[in-house]
């Protein structure tokens, strides 16, 4: 059973952390067209959108943050629409059980690049579910909340979990990982979009073997060795569509990254560093070189 906050808070703030696919193998395709995946996923500690929920006389939605204007130029955009869809879907589920779901004003601070392979709207939708459960002081079985999350999108259940995990199927078959080190990384995005459907369309091999067994521990060296045995099967077609992915990956390598890979369907890439100081130094250097692109140092959750 999932319960909201026991105290009646008029305002609740929820983080929507970036979701990073450390490895992603395409292992099949269902008859309905959905691709089957096997992915090792973790989340950023401080690279995130933020959502604020305030009880109000009527529902409202507003945007702020570096990338908020890009959403507002498209009637709140995909990410904003998923926030509102999450609100309406959760409200309907609660009202069916006789629980109240009062009007609420939602403010989305959009700090992460849009459509960039690091969660985006899925992370925002998951944070909306968590935040509204608190502000409405609601109670739902965990299975019911997971069902709502999957209805919102294949990535939403893993974003709702918000901790290191292995995701299979279309993303709904989740196994939390017992141990993973806090990885120091830089997220890098050239702020150019790539079409996820086009990337999957170009995927010629759709029955790849699954990801191997991840380390059962927090040794960074073991994890780096494991990641080097895995892949992101979406990266080659994404690089063919957007050559900037090659360029930004090389920038990460030259900045001292020990390991570089694209996350999800891109175009965000990540570089892993020996410690957070090295990641901070790299992010500052990269930002000076390309101030028009997105670079963010962060640590992953454990």
How are the elements arranged and paired?
Elements: E1 2-3, E2 11-29, E3 35-55, E4 60-64, H1 68-72, H2 77-96, E5 104-109, H3 121-135, E6 139-140, H4 142-152, H5 156-161, E7 165-169, E8 173-176, E9 184-189, H6 196-201, H7 220-228, H8 235-241, H9 244-254, E10 259-262, E11 269-273, H10 276-289, E12 294-299
Parallel strand pairs: 4-5
Antiparallel strand pairs: 1-6, 2-3, 3-5, 3-7, 7-8, 9-11, 9-12, 10-11
Helix pairs in contact: 2-3, 2-4
Any overview of this molecule?
It is a single chain. With 302 residues, the protein is of the alpha+beta class. The chain has two domains: 2-175, 2-Layer Sandwich (Ribosomal Protein S5, domain 2), CATH 3.30.230.10; 178-299, GHMP kinase, C-terminal domain (Alpha-Beta Plaits, 2-Layer Sandwich), CATH 3.30.70.890. Helices cover 34% and strands 28% of the residues. It has ten helices and twelve strands. It has helices spanning 68-72, 77-96, 121-135, 142-152, 156-161, 196-201, 220-228, 235-241, 244-254, 276-289; strands at residues 2-3, 11-29, 35-55, 60-64, 104-109, 139-140, 165-169, 173-176, 184-189, 259-262, 269-273, 294-299. Strands 2, 3, 4, 5, 7 and 8 form a six-stranded mixed beta sheet that branches. It has a four-stranded antiparallel beta sheet with strand order 10-11-9-12, with helices on one face. Helix 2 runs parallel beside helix 3 and helix 2 packs antiparallel against helix 4. It is globular, with a radius of gyration of 19 Å. The mean pLDDT is 93.
